[in-house]
Amino acid sequence: MKPEHPTIRPPALVAGVLLIALLALTVGAGGRSEASPGRHPPARPIVKTRHIAPGLTYTKIVRRSIPLRTYVLRIDLTQALTIDTTIADTALPSRRPLSGIVASHDALAGVNGDPGEGLGNTVHPFAQDGELLHTAGPGATLFAVSRDESRTFFGVADVSVTLTDQNSGVTYRLDRWNRGGPAPGELVGFSPLGGTLEPPPPFACSARLLPQGPPVAAPNDGVDRDFVVDTVGCSASALKTNGGVVIAAAAATEEATQLLTLVPGTPMRLHWTFGWPDVFDAVGGVPMLLRDGSPTPICASCALQPRTAVGVTASGQILLVVVDGRSRRSRGVTLGQLRNILRDLGAVTALNLDGGGSSEMVVQGQVVNQPSEGHERHITNAILVLPGADPGEA
């Protein structure tokens, strides 16, 4: 898989923010304005922009005649800023208000991310600080930024997880990660991020591996991490991760026999990838709204809703956009109208994130929009803007 945008090292583009924000008001079908022949043009929107940090601006756009309220974070990663993705808690299940997530990471700002499952998990594959949260079915659409903040990636990611015996060179392909116990014919993995929601299974043959260093960028794509075999065996009791990872197979299968050949002390290398180089953080969404400046197939008649989206401009700036909905102050937008907003703000590629009551933006510790339920919803994950480097990847 090739990145959508191989470089993002442009000069800062703060000077046209107000003009671009005004263009974001074309929320009608096909980007038409509200004005009709023979009628007076609509009132100008109220646009307020605040500089949060070098390279980071926050803009609020109020259109009372619709009514509609849009909130925009514009991020220039050539400055000392980092895009970070994180689940709400230290492990699954993960549920917490966005303001708490932002505060716990000392972030400058943040928005909600992937739609969360009711049990406190993300719908799509997710990664944070070089750790894979879980795999999912094929066709997942992800957004990611390279660890050095120089490249953005959007697209369908085929997740791959392998484990290589460093002594023999034998490589084992894992069928799932933190996503349920093994069926016959499968090898599956579990990490501490799985928590109590995705623990290693009982009545299985398992090997526990202990880490020998932090995650590192793999030579071509994805992430490598070295481990050493700690213990191997079959038991009715689940083998705990104890700070490492557990690889499991159904008893009396060929995969179980393979696991039982591992000897304690054997060096192993875990590799996972979305097919992109130097990506330690990734978040999912659906559908794609724009790809390389062109519209993508979306629901043509979807209802007006609160929405959240992420996009990248031709110059490489990141846009995080929230639109309020389901209220007298802001009616919400369709997916087509959301695409128009992102395009008028300068996005060439954009992805829809979770919406509805989860749509929220926090800036400098304050909830700046009005969540449709009248209060913050407990969400599973978030996209954050950090000042400086990500301490989780130091």
Topology overview:
Elements: H1 17-23, E1 46-53, E2 56-63, E3 68-75, E4 81-87, H2 98-104, E5 109-112, E6 126-128, E7 131-134, E8 140-145, E9 152-157, E10 160-165, E11 171-174, E12 176-177, E13 187-190, E14 204-211, E15 216-217, E16 223-235, E17 245-250, H3 254-260, E18 267-273, E19 281-284, E20 288-291, E21 294-295, E22 307-313, E23 318-323, H4 335-344, E24 347-352, E25 361-363, E26 366-367, E27 381-387
Unreliable spans are: 6-37
Estimate the mean pLDDT confidence: 91
Tally the beta strands.
27
Q: How far is the N terminus from the C terminus?
A: 27 Å
Q: Hey, roughly how much beta strand do the residues contain? A: 35-45%
Largest sheet: 9 strands, mixed
Task: Give me the number of helical elements.
Answer: 4
Shape estimate: elongated
Helix content: under 10%
Rg over alpha carbons: 22 Å
Structural class: mainly beta
Your description of this structure?
There is one protein chain. 8% of the residues lie in helices and 37% in strands. It has 394 residues and is mostly beta strands. Among the domains are: 17-78 and 286-376, no CATH class; 160-273, no CATH class. Strands 10, 11, 12, 13, 14, 15, 16, 17 and 18 form a nine-stranded mixed beta sheet that branches. It has an eight-stranded antiparallel beta sheet with strand order 1-2-3-23-22-24-20-21, with helices on one face. Strands 4-27-5-25-26 form a five-stranded antiparallel beta sheet, with helices on one face. A hairpin with a 4-residue loop joins β2 and β3. The longest helix has 10 residues, at 335-344. It is elongated. The relative contact order is 0.22. Residues 6-37 have low confidence and may be disordered.
